[in-house]
Amino acid sequence: MQFTSMILSNAEVSPGYWRMRMTAPQQFASATPGQFVMVRVSGAIDPLLRRPFGIFDVGVHAPVQSGAVPQPYFEMLYRVVGKGTAMLSALHETDVLDILGPLGTGFNLGSPDEEKLIVGGGVGLAPLYLLARELVKRSPVRLFAGGRTRDDILCITEFERLGVECYTATEDGSLGECGLVTEALLRRLDVLKGRATIYACGPHGMLNAVAATAEARKIPCQVSLEGYMACGVGACLGCVAPGRGHSAETPDFRCVCTEGPVFESNELKWRD
Ligand SMILES: Cc1cc2nc3c(=O)[nH]c(=O)nc-3n(C[C@H](O)[C@H](O)[C@H](O)COP(=O)(O)OP(=O)(O)OC[C@H]3O[C@@H](n4cnc5c(N)ncnc54)[C@H](O)[C@@H]3O)c2cc1C
Ligand code: FES
């Protein structure tokens, strides 16, 4: 669905990271965790292409005036990395944006009897909050949030408010454990003896390590990929990722914007 959305708020939540709340049509409430939107960041020709962002949260904005209709909204959590995201960060309340979404295939919530381990690196936490909100209704949920410094650890209080147990790790030791968050994940997996499902989003190196752990321990694992996208609707094939059977002789690709962005980790080809 394509719609015009009005910005309700746009605030820097940590240096370089912004959280934007926008109006949404009623039908947007059916967005599932892991789906994304394609945002036209400006009405001008440059940048021409829409930018993809995960859906951080959906909800209903309480009306200020009595008798006014409650306004559905959605939120994005984004990092300023280039022109498009810099333009987004300069927008204010009541500015409007052209949105396409919700798009793609999101997370499978899995069976309720296993602990759910959510692993997020930096802004990779963005599509994991809505997921956590759904998972806590059915299962115990733990979050493993990692980043280079404390600035990369985002919105942990929101996860804690859901009842999620949160672990943090930073490479410089400025928040939580010093090191990689995958080390804390391994310790929890040892305790659980394989009875868990992993959900991950973040830098490719982190996803690679999580996928390798899941494979070695035969644990179901879903990953959300955040590569480059041009159209977001399956038309350009600019987003494809190599599937498990891919080789020079046998091309095997997955279309990230329609078949994903969430995949079972064993569907994809990872570095050895
Ligand atoms: C399905 C999906 C969901 C996403 N969700 C989020 C989200 O919730 N929050 C968020 O902050 N970002 C998210 N991203 C990444 C986001 O789309 C890019 O950061 C954004 O398009 C950059 O736009 P820009 O114009 O600011 O940067 P550009 O000017 O286009 O690029 C600036 C720099 O960033 C690099 N870059 C651009 N896009 C990516 C990318 N996808 N991966 C790695 N490097 C990139 C470029 O190579 C360049 O060096 C998502 C991407 C996908 C595919
Ligand atoms: S972005 Fe065009 S096909 Fe996926």
Plain-language structure description:
The chain is α/β, with parallel strands linked by helices and 272 residues long. It folds into 2 domains: 2-103, Translation factors (Elongation Factor Tu (Ef-tu), domain 3, Beta Barrel); 115-226, Nucleotide-binding domain of ferredoxin-NADP reductase (FNR) module (Rossmann fold). It is 17% helix and 33% strand. It has 5 helices and 16 strands. The strands form 3 sheets. The protein has a 7-stranded antiparallel β-sheet. A 7-stranded mixed β-sheet has the order 11-10-9-8-12-13-16, with helices on both faces. A two-stranded antiparallel ribbon has the order 14-15. The relative contact order is 0.15.
Sum this structure up briefly.
The protein is of the alpha/beta class.
How much of the sequence lies in strands comes to 25-35%
| CATH architecture name of the largest domain | 3-Layer(aba) Sandwich
CATH superfamily of the largest domain: Nucleotide-binding domain of ferredoxin-NADP reductase (FNR) module
Number of helices: 5
Distance between the termini: 39 Å
The major β-sheet equals: 7 strands, antiparallel
Rg, rounded, reads: 18 Å
